Amino acid sequence: MDKFWGIVYSQVDKSDVVLEVVDARFPSICRSNRLEKYVLDSDSTNLIIAINKTDLIPRERLDQWISWFKDQGLAAVGVSAKERLGTSRIRQTILRASKRKTAVVAVVGFPNTGKSSLINTLRGKSAAGVAPIPGKTRSEQKVRVSNSLFMFDTPGVIPAKLPEKHKILLGIVSITKLQDPEHAALVLYHQGNQLNPGAIAKYYEIEDNEEELLEILAVKFNKYRKGKVPNEREAAMIILKDHVRGRLPIFEVPDNPLRLK
Ligand SMILES: Nc1nc2c(ncn2[C@@H]2O[C@H](COP(=O)(O)OP(=O)(O)OP(=O)(O)O)[C@@H](O)[C@H]2O)c(=O)[nH]1
Ligand SMILES: [Mg+2]
């Protein structure tokens, strides 16, 4: 991971603007203090927060998050790379923040927040590789977005101290490499229920029963081991994969962020 930090720092040094991409569902926990401090300490570079995946949260939540960032002295813009929402606003904000007529932008943030997708959307055609698995972008890549805008795609970086449960919520654990997917799925369900009570159960049209979740889900999806035993491991993979693909209706509430300032 240190190699990745090296790439990120070197691109920040070469940029007029740093776009920190956060997931609109969990903005407070996918921010890097280390990176923000590095950028804010630099005289030549301005920081903008891109709240991406706004298609996954209610409109009024976005306004609340923009105010939440503003209260902390940070400019934030909502965008959906997938639905192509907010793209003109983000272009204008970047050019305004740049001290020159053109802008070189380092697009940084946690894995899987949509950095590469955002670059592709702004450019209008694919240049940067995108995947529903964290860690897709592994090296630096400079993309010409328009005559006045150049963007560096960077590998996602994760703070060393990020709690496991937040990694699960952010979908930045490699699901296929998990030792205990059942445990991860239950952690995800529990956190989801604290944020939006009953929402995951409603999505799957199952009873909200945390203790028997995997069994209930295995039966629902007809996943059995030999002898008609519900396959809890496969049930766990279903919920984890659905989450990484952004299908589960769970998101943070700005009044009660998971991580305080
Ligand atoms: N719903 C939704 N999904 C999005 C959006 N932007 C990106 N995604 C999805 O999020 C996943 C990760 O997208 P990437 O663009 O590869 O993310 P990244 O930040 O470049 O990831 P790394 O290269 O691994 O750091 C993909 O499955 C995208 O389709 C968005 O605005 N809305
Ligand atoms: Mg990428």
Structure characterization notes:
Helix content is 39%, strand content 15%. The mean pLDDT is 90. The chain is elongated and about 65 Å long. The longest helix has 15 residues, at 181-195. The protein folds into 2 domains: 2-153, Rossmann fold (3-Layer(aba) Sandwich); 164-244, Conserved Hypothetical Protein Ylqf, Chain: A, domain 2. The chain has 10 helices and 8 strands.
Please give a quick description of this structure.
This protein is an alpha/beta fold and 261 residues long.
How many domains comprise the coordinates? 2
Strand content: 15-25%
Which spans of ≥5 residues are poorly predicted at pLDDT below 50?
Answer: none
Number of alpha- plus pi-helical segments: 10
Give the ligands present.
guanosine-5'-triphosphate, magnesium ion
**Which overall shape is indicated by the principal axes computed on the Cα atoms?**
elongated
Assign the structural class, choosing from mainly alpha, mainly beta, alpha/beta, alpha+beta, or little secondary structure.
alpha/beta
